Amino acid sequence: MPSRCNVDDTVNDHGKSLLQFCIQANKCVCNGRITPLLDNFTTISHRRKSGVHYVLVPHSHLSTIDILSVRTCSELTELYRLPVAKGRISDHSVLTISINTALADTERNEVDGGEPVTTDTPSPRENTHKLPKRYRKTKLPENFMTSDERLTEYANLIDMLLELRINQSRID
């Protein structure tokens, strides 16, 4: 996994909780990892700069993210020459990701066991007019969402979310 170049060195209790969640859920933060030169603070005001918005993906899907860019609303306003009333620009940034859907479809097929419909679709970079691969719902196993393994995963997820909610209450 590529190392992460974080623009915000400050880690508070919310950040620690997020990192704990990522470890437990086998997720990783894409900000500063995919295209570090396009990274930026996600909130910029006259009081402070910070990174408070993140793109999280499972470790197994990290390779499907081609580009992650963070652009300030001021930057986008200037770039696209948008009319804005003075002092009305948001201090939050816009996060944009580019996902290689050909890789994402392959990985999803391996994880979910669905069979993609073959359409000879080129990658989105080659031709944006064709639709991506679709999955036939009739090919999914009957117990796709109700297998013992899935039910255990749901119970674990619910427990984890409840624990995060309790931790969030303690932080607040």
Describe the protein's architecture and organization.
The chain is α+β, with helices and mostly antiparallel strands. The chain has 4 helices and 6 strands. The chain has 2 domains: 1-99, no CATH class; 141-172. The protein has a two-stranded antiparallel sheet. A two-stranded antiparallel ribbon has the order 2-3. A two-stranded antiparallel ribbon has the order 5-6. Helix 1 packs antiparallel against helix 4.
Binned, the helix content reads 25-40%
- Total helices: the number is 4
> Could you list the spans in which at least 5 consecutive residues all have pLDDT below 50?
116-129
Gyration radius over CA: 20 Å
* Quaternary form: single chain
Instruction: Let me know the average pLDDT.
Output: 81
End-to-end separation in angstroms reads 33 Å
Strand content: 5-15%
Shape: globular
The tally of structural domains comes to 2
| Element pattern in H and E | HEEEEEHEHH
Q: What's the story with the biggest beta sheet?
A: 2 strands, antiparallel
Strand arrangement within the widest β-sheet reads 1-4
Structure classification: alpha+beta
Q: Total strand count, please?
A: 6
Quick structural overview:
This protein is α+β, with helices and mostly antiparallel strands and 172 residues long. Helices cover 33% and strands 15% of the residues.
Keywords:
172 residues, alpha+beta, 2 domains, two-stranded antiparallel sheet, 6 strands, globular
Give the helices and strands, then pairings.
Blueprint: H1 13-25, E1 27-29, E2 43-44, E3 49-50, E4 56-58, E5 65-72, H2 73-79, E6 93-99, H3 101-112, H4 148-171
Antiparallel strand pairs: 1-4, 2-3, 5-6
Helix pairs in contact: 1-4
